[in-house]
Design goal:
The protein has 344 residues and is α+β, with helices and mostly antiparallel strands. The chain is built from five helices and 13 strands. The protein is 40% helix and 26% strand. The strands form two sheets. The chain has a six-stranded antiparallel beta barrel with strand order 1-8-12-10-9-13. Strands 5-4-2-7 form a four-stranded antiparallel beta sheet, with no helix packed on it. Helix 2 packs antiparallel against helix 5 and helix 3 packs antiparallel against helix 4. It comes from Thiolapillus brandeum. InterPro entries: Beta-barrel_RND_2 (IPR058792), HH_YbhG-like (IPR059052), UPF0194_transport (IPR050465).
Length: 344
C-alpha cells in the first residue's frame, strides 16, 4: 500500500492535537482536577484592630513595644489620671452626703427635739392664758372708766396672737411626732441614686484612661507616644489577631456548588515547603467578581470568581500577613465542625 506523503499527514495530526488539548482544557479547567481535589492560590490575611482610648487626655505611658505578644485584658497604655481621680473623689463625697441625708429622714425626729417642741407648746399656752387674762381685766376696768378702749383692743389682739402661737407650736409638735413625709424620703432616695450614678460615671471615666488588649495578639504599630494627646478618634496602637488566620483566594464559578463552609482543607507555603497546615473553608462570598490581577493563572482573569477565605490555626505564628499560599481542598470530604483555635 502506498504511504501518504508526510505533508498530507501533518494537518490531520495538528487537528487531532488541537482537539485533544481543547477537550483536556474543558475537562480539567484551572483550579479543577480529575480526582475531585481542588487546588487554589492566594495570600495569608489576618484581622487587625486600631485601639483607641475612650477618653481625651495626654498619654502617660505606653507599656508595649512593636512586635510584642500580648494577652487578652493586658494593660497596654495609660493616660494622665490626676483630673479623673479628683472627679471620683468629689463624686464619692456627694454620695456620702446624700446617704447621710436619707438616713436622717428615715430615722425621724430625735426624742430631744420632740421634748423641746412640747416645752414650746406649754410656754405658748402660758403666754396665751396671760394675754387672755389681761384682756378680761381691762374689759372690767373699762366699765369703771379706769382703762381706755384702745388698751382693751390691744389686749384682745395680743390674746389672739398668743393663741395662734399655741396652735403653731402644736402643729410643729405633731410634725415632729409624725416624722418625715414619704415624698421627702422618696426624693432623698432619688438624690442618692443620682449621686451614685454620677460616681459610676466618674469611675468609668477613670477606667477609660487605661487601654487594655481586647484579645490575644501582636502589637504591630505604636502610633502614639507619651506626651501625645489621645482621643477616641485617634488610634494609639495597632493590634494584629494572629490566630486564626486565613488565605484569601478565589473560587471559580463552576465549582461554587461543590465547596461549602466547614469543608476540610490543607495549606502549604513556599516558606515551609515540607510542612502543611490543617485548615477549613470559612467563608464564600455571595457575590461574584472578576478575578483580581494578582491571580497568576491567566486563564482565570476573564472568568467570574467568588472570594473565599480558608482559615487555619496559627499557633506557631508561621503564617504571616501577605505570605503566598497554596490551598488544597478535597471535594469529597464531608463538612465537619469548625475547630476552636483558642483551645489547647
Amino acid at each position: 500500500m502506498e504511504m501518504l506523503p508526510m505533508k498530507k499527514l501533518l494537518p490531520a495530526v495538528l487537528v487531532l492535537l488541537i482537539a485533544g488539548a481543547a477537550f483536556a482544557w474543558f475537562k480539567l479547567r484551572p483550579g479543577e482536577t480529575a480526582t475531585d481535589a481542588l487546588t487554589l492560590y492566594g495570600n495569608v490575611d489576618i484581622r487587625e484592630a486600631r485601639l483607641t482610648f475612650n477618653a481625651s487626655e495626654h498619654v502617660d505611658r505606653i507599656l508595649v513595644e512593636e512586635g510584642e505578644h500580648v494577652n487578652k485584658d493586658q494593660l497596654l497604655a495609660t493616660l494622665h489620671q490626676e483630673l479623673f481621680r479628683s472627679r471620683v473623689a468629689q463624686a464619692q463625697a456627694q454620695v456620702e452626703a446624700r446617704r447621710q441625708q436619707l438616713a436622717k429622714l428615715k430615722a425621724g425626729s430625735r426624742p430631744e427635739e420632740i421634748d423641746k417642741a412640747k416645752a414650746e407648746v406649754a410656754a405658748a399656752r402660758a403666754r396665751a392664758r396671760a394675754a387672755h387674762d389681761t384682756w378680761q381685766r381691762l374689759q372690767r376696768l373699762v366699765a369703771k372708766k379706769l382703762a381706755s378702749r384702745e388698751e382693751v383692743e390691744t389686749a384682745n389682739s395680743n390674746a389672739n396672737a398668743a393663741q395662734a402661737q399655741v396652735e403653731a407650736a402644736q402643729a410643729a409638735l405633731q410634725l415632729l411626732q409624725a416624722g418625715p413625709r414619704r415624698e421627702d424620703i422618696a426624693a432623698a432616695e432619688a438624690d442618692l441614686r443620682a449621686a451614685e450614678a454620677n460616681l459610676d460615671l466618674a469611675r468609668q471615666n477613670l477606667d477609660n484612661t487605661e487601654l487594655h488588649a481586647p484579645a490575644d495578639g501582636i502589637i504591630r504599630t505604636r502610633i502614639l507616644e507619651p506626651g501625645d494627646m489621645a482621643s477616641p478618634l485617634k488610634p494609639a496602637l495597632t493590634l494584629a489577631f494572629a490566630n486564626p488566620v486565613w488565605v484569601r483566594t478565589y473560587l471559580p464559578e463552576t465549582l461554587l456548588g461543590k465547596v461549602k463552609p466547614g469543608m476540610r482543607a490543607t495549606i502549604a507555603t513556599d516558606s515551609y515547603p515540607n510542612k502543611t497546615y490543617s485548615a477549613w473553608v470559612g467563608y464564600v462570598s455571595p457575590t461574584a467578581e472578576f478575578t483580581p490581577k494578582n491571580v497568576e493563572t491567566p486563564e482565570l482573569r476573564t472568568r467570574l470568581v467568588y472570594q473565599m477565605r480558608v482559615f487555619a490555626c496559627n499557633g506557631n505564628e508561621e503564617l504571616r500577613l501577605g505570605m503566598p499560599a497554596t490551598v488544597y481542598i478535597d471535594l469529597q470530604a464531608p463538612v465537619t465542625a469548625i475547630p476552636d483555635c483558642q483551645k489547647p
